[in-house]
């Protein structure tokens, strides 16, 4: 089943999302921009470990443990979800806020397991990467084209490997989350949908999750 939002974001809307992410995350490095874009096109690849049996702890237990840890630390994201990447395929869902909105934990695990079916394409990822790269170079003058080239060479960009966030980014953004199919998430939770997030120039420019 195709995501009805696939290929519906205009260049202007993609630039809006890139600019907002860059401005909201001054601590982000090239690797963090890459991961944000990668998750948006291909989802949270860690979930495939569940189905291949490489995780000894069930995903449901991992999610519950992460929620319990944040409750003990009294930390919680203000957002239930936010967009990730430029493909309008996936969203990042913050577990503790999601749980405190009385949403079932088993449902987010189910969505995570079903989300690989919505993975995008290498070509569209590379095109969006070029757009992101040019935009970041304008917004972050301390970064250079050579920095991006060095990064691409270091990770064998043609293979598009998944990467972790940098320590600096992870420290500034500590909330537990999962990346799930945007379509599946809003099918089950239409009350959270906000078209203005993906189409900010259609009238309402709110980007509240």
Care to give the gist of this entry?
The protein is mainly α. It is built from eleven helices and three strands; from the N terminus they run H-H-H-H-E-E-H-H-H-H-H-E-H-H.
How would the blueprint of this fold be written?
Layout: H1 11-24, H2 30-42, H3 48-51, H4 59-73, E1 81-83, E2 90-94, H5 95-100, H6 105-114, H7 122-139, H8 145-154, H9 167-172, E3 177-181, H10 182-188, H11 195-198
Antiparallel strand pairs: 1-2, 2-3
Helix pairs in contact: 1-7, 2-7
Main features:
3 strands, mainly alpha, disordered C terminus, 209 residues, globular
Describe this structure in words.
With 209 residues, this protein is mainly alpha-helical. It contains 11 helices and 3 strands; from the N terminus they run ααααββαααααβαα. The chain has helices at 11-24, 30-42, 48-51, 59-73, 95-100, 105-114, 122-139, 145-154, 167-172, 182-188, 195-198; strands at residues 81-83, 90-94, 177-181. Strands 1-2-3 form a 3-stranded antiparallel sheet. A hairpin with a 6-residue loop joins strand 1 and strand 2. Helix 1 (11-24) packs across helix 7 and helix 2 (30-42) packs antiparallel against helix 7. The longest helix has 18 residues, at 122-139. The model is unreliable at 1-6, 47-52 and 203-209 (pLDDT under 50).
């Amino acid at each position: 089943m195709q995501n009805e939002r696939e290929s519906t974001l205009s260049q202007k809307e993609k630039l809006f999302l890139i600019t907002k992410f860059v401005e909201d995350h001054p601590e982000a490095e090239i690797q963090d921009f890459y991961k944000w874009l990668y998750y948006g096109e291909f989802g949270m690849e860690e979930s495939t470990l569940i189905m291949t049996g490489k995780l000894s702890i069930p995903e449901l237990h991992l999610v519950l443990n992460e929620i319990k840890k944040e409750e003990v630390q009294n930390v919680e994201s203000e957002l239930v979800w936010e967009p990730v990447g430029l493909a309008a395929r996936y969203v990042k869902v913050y577990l503790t806020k999601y749980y405190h909105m009385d949403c079932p934990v088993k449902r987010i695990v189910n969505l995570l397991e079903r989300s690989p079916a919505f993975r995008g394409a290498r070509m569209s990822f590379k095109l969006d990467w070029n757009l992101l790269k040019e935009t970041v170079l304008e917004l972050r003058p301390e970064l250079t084209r050579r920095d991006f080239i060095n990064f691409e060479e270091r990770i064998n960009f043609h293979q598009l490997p998944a990467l972790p966030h940098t320590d600096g980014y992870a420290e500034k953004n500590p909330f537990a989350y999962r990346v799930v199919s945007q379509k599946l998430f809003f099918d089950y939770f239409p009350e959270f949908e906000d078209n203005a997030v993906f189409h900010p120039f259609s009238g309402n420019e709110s980007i509240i999750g």
